[in-house]
Amino acid sequence: MVDLASMLFGDFQDSIVATFGDTIGWVVGHALIVGLVALVWYTWIGREHIRTQSGWGMPEIRDAATIIAVTMAQYIVYTSNLDYPVVPALAVAFSATMFARWCVNVLN
Fold this sequence. Notes:
Helix content: over 70%
Number of strands: 0
Oligomer: single chain
Number of helices: 6
Order of helices and strands: HHHHHH
């Protein structure tokens, strides 16, 4: 049997196999792959409806992308240069990003 789930999920698939056994673990892993592909396909088919009916326009998407980019840049600095643990680094980075966003939106 070809084990695509192990190639895609790595250690997560090993945990599934350890939990359910070889055969059922293989089935569960591949069912997850099929489910993810179906979800992506369904989203792709309904992308126009999602775009027009979600209420999200380019300003909101740009804002979210900027928040994610600035948070990740700070996270990299905090973890690589300052040796913060993962969760506190994300918390400090996200808090600082949201504070900077508040300063720009409210105080500007």
